[in-house]
Amino acid sequence: xxxxxxxxxxxxxxxxxxxxxxxxxxxxxxxxxxxxxxxxxxxxxxxxxxxxxxxxxxxxxxxxxxxxxxxxxxxxxxxxxxxxxxxxxxxxxxxxxxxxxxxxxxxxxxxxxxxxxxxxxxxxxxxxxxxxxxxxxxxxxxxxxxxxxxxxxxxxxxxxxxxxxxxxxxxxxxxxxxxxxxxxxxxxxxxxxxxxxxxxxxxxxxxxxxxxxxxxxxxxxxxxxxxxxxxxxxxxxxxxxxxxxxxxxxxxxxxxxxxxxxxxxxxx
Length: 268
Ligand SMILES: Nc1ncnc2c1ncn2[C@@H]1O[C@H](COP(=O)(O)OP(=O)(O)OP(=O)(O)O)[C@@H](O)[C@H]1O
Hints:
The chain is α/β, with parallel strands linked by helices.
């Protein structure tokens, strides 16, 4: 197994704040295959972490493990230094590529999510107004969610997640099927959430988006972390074969010279 390349400088290391979320030797197996393999990552408080990698690299699985949606086969997810539990999950929110919305109005979607969290009365009304304003959906408050455009649905899903006041927001390819204007609107919403103190973890295939939104970057290949570091540094100067191939728009093959030489120190 090749070692993950860490694309950081000593100055970056000196500034590292306490991680909000950590994985320790995290593994996930299914169908006799190791799909997430010995992953050790730190998600830093208040940062925007981008997870990248080719199709099938394990990005969505890692996100689901971080959010406690699936149980690891090995290792641990730590939330503020302790094993992730219900209270930790309560402080998290996740938005998928295809938003899961109620077949009711924009307002009802927001109202239902807040009620489920025990937020009622004036506070619920206040949060709904803010959420609709931020997502620019106020004029569509009574429109059924199912007739909204893809971009509007995604903004509603993000606004609904944020209305509940999470400390961290996981986003799995939130703009994958959107047009440029809708991508911009979703990115604005994410940037606004980050400015309000929400830690962001974003899976994306979009290099431009990774540059625009990423502080830190985790690059996965075959369920393993092969490179981490400041997003701009990794994208400008990838050190691992898979990340280099990916940023150049090439397929990476296991037989590529970089990988072979790294495999000399393989643990497996
Ligand atoms: N529950 C499961 N059982 C068996 N295999 C699974 C399961 N979930 C995911 N996989 C496999 O694990 C691998 C990683 O899946 P994952 O969805 O995390 O990839 P990804 O990096 O998000 O890919 P993409 O960019 O295509 O969305 C894939 O080969 C997938 O088929």
